[in-house]
Amino acid sequence: MTGMHSTASRSPWARLVAGVVVLVAMSAMAGCQTIGYYSHAVLGQWRVLSGRQPVTQVLTALDGRDDARSRQLREQLTLSQKVLDFAETELGLDVGRRYRTYVDLKRPAVVWNLFAAPPLSLQPHTWCYPIVGCAPYRGYFDEALAQRHAAVLAAQGLETYVAPVPAYSTLGWFADPLMSSFIGWPEPDLAELLFHELAHGVVWVPGDVAFNESFATFVGRRGLSEWLVGQGRVDLLEDRRDAALARGRLLDLLERTRAQLAAVYDGDADREHKLEAKARILSALDACYEGHRDGLGGGRYDALMDGLDNARLVSIATYEDQVPAFAGLFDEAGGRWPAFFDRVRGLAELDDPARRAALGSGDEQVADAGDDDGSHEIQCESLARHLLDGETPG
């Protein structure tokens, strides 16, 4: 989701009013549909903010209740504040007033992100916003509205994917609250999410979603490892490592699939033959996933893989592509968070080509330095056979 930094000492409501004026004024030139979207976004943000309560106040109200739901919420809110203290003291993340309030959304997600891509391209459809730049998704506070806009894009010939989002960062523009959409998560998931969202407050490059999200993804995962070690929860850390191996296998499988699809899309065949080749590749991927489901998350990714298309592949690439590069950067910084953040801020100052080149170099260093025994790969002969001409590649 979108937002901006502000050092002004205005109240959240003054900021919101100012935001409305700026967004409407800037979008007026783009037509009524754009104004309608920003009106929806502003109203959705206002509803989230207006429902906030200080965590201390919620905990006081819960003290007199002994039902299971109240006990769980009390425990999770208490845990969240400990995680935030850890983020500030051990990871050097600026918490400030963020996540010191709680809101019951009364729905399973706070927003739903819409992704779209052409049927014969892995280049995402993009939307551009004031201040924060362009992104390969658009967020909606109403799922039905997201689905309606997805239907419009589908009617234009695009593949679409609507994904529920439990949390987002306003980058310090507002004091983000804890939400019912994620407060009940298990400790590792909750901690990783908070570290991820707080990382967005460290650096944000307008228009470079891959950089922003990969950076936050790395901070979330690395921060979680340090949190679990600090809590003496090595058992949970081992579980997370097993899950990370499964995730790595899936990402490797999807990356190989994307490479095959890109070769088809960039080829000289006509549209009909390209669509046939695409169908063969995705069918082979389905068979491969089903045949190795236990080693690919044991069903955790079934919803993602059900109906996988270009739009879903785009959504995955956004968050994962540059994570290894940030891991290499962290190692170069000696595993010290302040030095790592300084390096990331330095990258943020570069222009887009220079930043991509620097991260690409980091990615290669990680690959060269890794102790890779091939255990992350899922070998599926069917994938190798389903190129454009149907023959096994050399």
Please tell me about this protein's structure.
With 394 residues, the chain is mostly helical. Helices cover 57% and strands 8% of the residues. The chain has helices spanning 12-27, 32-50, 55-62, 68-89, 143-155, 187-199, 209-230, 234-265, 271-291, 302-305, 310-320, 323-332, 337-348, 352-369, 381-385, and strands at residues 53-54, 101-103, 111-117, 127-129, 133-135, 138-140, 159-165, 178-179. A three-stranded mixed sheet has the order 1-2-8. A three-stranded antiparallel sheet has the order 6-3-7. It is globular, with a radius of gyration of 22 Å.
* Helix-strand category: mainly alpha
Strand coverage percent: 5-15%
Globular, elongated, flat, extended or rod-shaped: what is the shape?
A: globular
Strand order of the largest sheet: 1-2-8
Q: Tally of extended strands?
A: 8
Mean pLDDT across the residues is 85
State the helicity in percent bands: 55-70%
Span between termini: 44 Å
Q: What is the helix tally?
A: 15
Structural Rg: 22 Å
Low-confidence stretches: 1-31, 362-375, 385-394
Quaternary structure of the protein: single chain
For the largest beta-sheet, the strand count, sense and barrel status come to: 3 strands, mixed
Could you give the order of the helices and strands? Answer: HHEHHEEEEEHEEHHHHHHHHHH
Briefly say what this structure is.
The protein is mainly α and 394 residues long.
